[in-house]
Amino acid sequence: MKRTTRETYFQAVYRVIYYIEQHYSEDLPVEELARISGFSKYHFHRIFFSVVGENVSAFIRRIRLSASTGKLPHRSVTEVAMQSGYETPASFAKAFKENFGLSPSAYAKQQKNSKESVMTDVKTVEVAPTEVLCVRRTGDYMVSAGQAFEVLMGFAYTQKIKHKKNLMGKEARMFGIGYDDPNSVPVEQLRYDACISYDDKTVEPEGEIVAKTIAGGKYLYHLHKGDYAGLKEKYAGMIRYMVENGIEMADKPPFEEYFNRDPRRTKPENLKTGIYIPIAE
Fold first, then answer.
1. Any idea what the CATH number is for the domain that residue 87 is in?
2. Domain shared by 92 and 150, yes or no
3. Does the pLDDT of residue 2 top 50, yes or no?
């Protein structure tokens, strides 16, 4: 496959992926998704499967189920089922149990009765929408994050050398978006985006590099100091804080901001990571 053709396929499929992730609770006819990709619906299925590794209907089901886990501690199963795009609570409950191994009501009870320690050093912040360039990888977050940033930094380096465009200037911010709960989603299906903000809109995404916007709004914020391995525990503490205080998560993914310019040259204990969990307004 020619590189230009491969890049066209990646750009087309990731346009569809991000559209699905933003509109998963709506009706998503394949004709509309094919139109967004720019391919006929007959070719769209094959191209999507080739890039993602699963068919589009299975991908949509997985995204809907993953998103439902953040709502269950605060809403009824019926309400979550409707908001997740399922026609009946029964069909939602069946799919949920098949995917996570327990019923939605049991999962919600488990979250409410969690013995995780409650965070105290958190605050609510207002975040402005941020345009970013990003790269998607799936798998263990501790592995996929490094893989995604390697590709993203390679693109930034090429832009500087080839086009004299400095994406890594002092104003650049680096983010990571982990879409799935590693406690309930199989590790091989965890979705992660490595992102960098950019002001120069003459930079054109190519290949696996896709432009998107990190949603603004209210977020619960905590500054984590130390090894990235400790992030999972901090997320659990923040979620417990939300459950204890009746704070509902908004229908968008949490994200991280990395404050160290080069983590590879920073001692683990000196790493600083901002954790943002969206709050329903």
1. 1.10.10.60
2. no
3. no
